[in-house]
Amino acid sequence: MSAVSATDTDFLTTVRDIAERVAAPNADMVDREARFPVETVQALREARALSALVPVELGGDGVPFETVAAACFELGRRCGASAMVFAMHQIQVACIVRHVGGEPWLADYLRRVANEQRLIASVTSEVGTGGDMGRSIAALTEAGEGRLSFEKQAPTVSYGAHADDLLVTLRRGPEAEPGDQVLVLAQRDQTTLRQNGTWDPLGMRGTCSPGYLVSATLPAEQALSTPFPRIAAETMVPVSHILWSHLWLGIATDAFDRAREFVRAAAKRNPGEPPPAALRLSQLLSELGLLRAEVRAGLTDFLEMSAEPGRPRLSTMTAAVRFNSLKIAASEQAPRICQAALGVCGIVGFKNDTPFSVGRHLRDTMSASLMIANERIHQTNAGLLLIAKEV
For position 266, which CATH number holds? Predict the structure, then answer.
C-alpha cells in the first residue's frame, strides 16, 4: 500500500505474516462471538509491534509512521477488529511520542511500552458532550500529596477491559472551561472500570467497546503538559483518520479480492465466455482505485506537514478540513465498495460460510461513519469553510 524502505521490510513482513497466519483464521470467530482478538494481539506483542512507533533511544524500533499505516492496511485485509485495536493503540502511542517533550516520566513510560509491550486504549468520548471530543465534562481534581483524581462516564471504551493503560481527556480542573483539556495517562493499577451496558454491535464486534465509568487517582506527572487541543490538532485527529482509512481500505481491498475470485471461478466454469459480473468487477476496481488514491494522498500530506519544524501547518484550519475530509471520504467509500462486492458475488457473498462471503466486511466498514460521526465532521468543516482562506 504505502511506500516502505528496505529497512522496514522486516516489520511489515512480520505484521503481514501475523495477519495471514493468526488474524485471518480467527476473524470469523472473533466476529461471531464479539470477543477480543487475543491471539492476534499476543502475536503482535511477541513481535514487539506495539512499540513500533517508540523511538530507538527509548527502547522501541522507531518504525516510520507510513510503515505502521501500511501494517494497519495488512491487518485490515484479514480482520477488521484486529486492525482497529492495533490502529487505536498506535494512535495513543503517537500522541505520547510526538508530545513527550522533556517530561522524564513519559519517557520512562515509553520505555515500559517497549519492554512490556503495554496496550493503550483511549477514553475521549463522554456522556453529555454529544460526541464532541473537543469538550469535556469530567475534570481533574486535587487529591493531595501531588496526586490527581477523576471520574468520567464514557459511552464507549474500545478494548478497555483488555488494555494495560488508558489515555483520558479531561478538563484541566474543576473551574476550567469545557475546551480547556488535558490528556492523562492512567495505568491499570491506578484505575477502576465499572462497565455500563453490553457490547453486541453490528460490526467491529471484536473491539469490545462497551461504556464504562472510569475513575483513577494518580501522580500529577501523568498529565501531559502539552494542552490537548494542540495534541488533537497535530496528532490525534490526523493520525486517527489516516490509520483508520488504511484499515478501512484493507477491508475493502479484501472484499474486492473475494469478488474477483468469484468472477474468476465463474470464468473457469465457462471458458471463452466473460461472466456477467466481470463488468461490475471492473467498475468496482475503479471505485477501489479512488479510495486508494485518497488514502495515499492523505498520508503524503500528513508526512509533509509533520516534517516541518514545529509542525505549524497541522494546527491550521486548512489541515483540519483536509484530514476531516479524508475521514469522511474513506468512511463512506469503503462500505460502498463492500456492498458492490456483495453485488458481484450475489448469494454466495451474502452467506457467511463461503469463501466469497463479504458480510463481515460490510458490517465492519459500516461502523466507519459512526467513529466521530460524519455529520458532526461535516458541521465542523462547514464552519471552517466559511472562514478558512485556503482548503
Answer: 1.20.140.10
Stated pTM of the model: 0.96
- Residues 244 and 327 reside in one and the same domain: yes
- Does any domain span residue 161? yes
pLDDT tens, the chain, 391 aa long: 444 454 588 999 999 999 999 999 999 999 999 999 999 999 999 999 999 999 999 999 999 999 999 999 999 999 999 999 999 999 999 999 999 988 999 999 999 999 999 999 999 999 999 889 999 999 999 999 999 999 999 999 999 999 999 999 999 999 999 999 999 999 999 999 999 989 999 999 999 999 999 999 999 999 999 999 999 999 999 999 999 999 999 999 999 999 999 999 999 998 878 888 999 999 999 999 999 999 999 999 999 999 999 999 999 999 999 999 999 999 999 999 999 999 999 999 999 999 999 999 999 999 999 998 999 999 999 999 988 777 7
251 and 359 assigned to the same domain: yes
- List the end-to-end C-alpha distance of the chain, in Å, as a whole number: 26
56 and 159 inside one domain: no
Range of the domain at 171: 120-222
Type of residue found at 52? A
d(CA 335, CA 337): 5
Q: How many domains does the chain have?
A: 3
Residues 70, 183 within the same domain: no
